[in-house]
Amino acid sequence: MKNVTLSNGVEMPILGFGVYQVRDLEECERVVSEALEVGYRSIDTAQAYGNEEAVGNAVKKSGLPREEFFLTTKVWILNAGYEKAKASIEESLRLLQTDYIDLLLIHQPFNDYYGTYRAMEEYYKAGKLKAIGVSNFYPDRFIDIAEFSEITPMVNQVETHVFNQQQKPQEIMKKYGTQIESWGPFAEGKNDFFTNETLQAVGQPYGKTPAQVALRYLIQRDVVVIPKTVTKERMIQNFDVFDFELSKKDMEKIAELDQKESLFFNHTDPETVEMFVNYVK
């Protein structure tokens, strides 16, 4: 497994496993256990997913040493603010059944995320968080929190896939020593992702699927990826992306797919902001 080194020296697997929308606890525990059997050691969850407990159960039952895992979770909007964030971190530690979290992110750039981040900085200094960062922070808000926090975010997890490649935001993150991480590396199947002609054509000589090509493309750009699936066969397939390398021409072809806009929602759109605000009310 290839790792990336975060700004504080922590090693993070470049390929992990996501559990977004796997809300049934039994199913979530099953798929995480299967992912661990395949070889995944980085698991990405969140308070809002409602499955931290299942992730913790799977990790504990694996019998593997805690230090082999890289666990990520995220503070939800309802838990924003210094005191609420601290309480939510304690709850995440309890549900995950661990003494520390490898990476904690602010899930959305709304509500009192500065208070949340101060709590995270405190837990980081206490050793209960090995790394801290943000999620869905576009360049404007990312620069804001990077400039006015004591500890610069080590990771920014944003929508990143072949149709929204985040090239310029990634350069801005590099300026601050922040690692970009992709959510939705398969664009959740939008734009006929899995039958895309360019991805099929690029993958054919390597004997690789569009999904494998898309993951490899991001990995070669030093983007951390956390594909999600509930099928073991696809877990294996998504894990099998380190035995080939895309050529410069391949990379250029895929770069042309970039539409430079979200396929889901724009965090700077007032309607999007109102949607997230409604979670608090």
Automatic annotation (TrEMBL):
It comes from Rossellomorea marisflavi. The lineage of its organism: Bacteria, Bacillati, Bacillota, Bacilli, Bacillales. Keywords: NADP, Oxidoreductase. Residues 18-258 form the NADP-dependent oxidoreductase domain. The record marks K74 as: Lowers pKa of active site Tyr. GO terms for molecular function: oxidoreductase activity, acting on the CH-OH group of donors, NAD or NADP as acceptor. Belongs to the aldo/keto reductase family. This is 2,5-diketo-D-gluconic acid reductase. Substrate binds at H107. It comes from the Bacteria. PANTHER family: 2,5-DIKETO-D-GLUCONIC ACID REDUCTASE, NADP-DEPENDENT OXIDOREDUCTASE DOMAIN-CONTAINING PROTEIN. The active site is at Y49. InterPro entries: AKR (IPR020471), Aldo/ket_reductase_CS (IPR018170), NAD(P)_OxRdtase_dom_sf (IPR036812), NADP_OxRdtase_dom (IPR023210).
